[in-house]
# Entry
Amino acid sequence: MSTISKAIIALIIAVSLIGGIFCVASMERIGAGMVGVVYSMKDGVQDKVLQQGVHFINPFLKVDEFPISQQQLVLSNNPADYNKSEHDDWHVDAPADGGMVKLNLTINYNFMQDKVTGLYDRFRGMDGETLVENMVQNSIIAYIKEVTPQFTVMEIYSTKRAEVGTAITEYLNTKLNDEYGINVSSALIIDVQLDETLMQKIQAKEQAKQDAEKAELDKQTAIAQAETDKVKAQAKADVAIIAAKAEAEANKLKSESITDELIKMKEAEARLKHGWVEVKGADSVVTTE
# Structure
């Protein structure tokens, strides 16, 4: 093989390698639920984002991703909430009416697609993950602390936990929509923890409530029993009155039924029973056996 032929083959191989490298460098894959923001040193941030899938672009362009599908931010002191055996404590120390509470929460959010290019430009090339870790998370914690003082410790701990979550969700949206182009679908309270002193106060208050409820129940039970006894006594008295009236009526009827004719008939029956009768004559009465 001539030197020229070898040179041509080498050139073809080199061109192929360069082309392959260029193709690989130009291939950009955008993950599911993500969009890619494209940036060039010359023109800055491009208005159009890349949708999920594989794209071939100028290898000198930079592409960073933002999640537009739902993501979850966990703020907790329990490693199990992160599906790990160990994790840094990220719970929220939140003020409330009556004391402080420790909140473990999950924040479900997503970036709004029409705002990601502006965010990328505004925050100087931060992608979605970096922006959340370095800025958004701290803002969310601060905004939660602005909501919780509207509620008492007991409401957050027990009676209005769902309402607290809804209030946090609504407030975060008023702040994060414009500030970070983030929509919050829900803020869910996983757990509420109190310090020992506050817990004792809560327990004492709850015990007092239970004692009051028991006392009221005992009172109502006593009233109901007294009313039952009264009804029974009245019923017994009514029965006695009815019986007395019936006996009196019977005696009255019996008394009214005794007439002179009845007396005479009874006397006649007695005479016959004992074997003697009186026979009245013109001037005398004769008794015969």
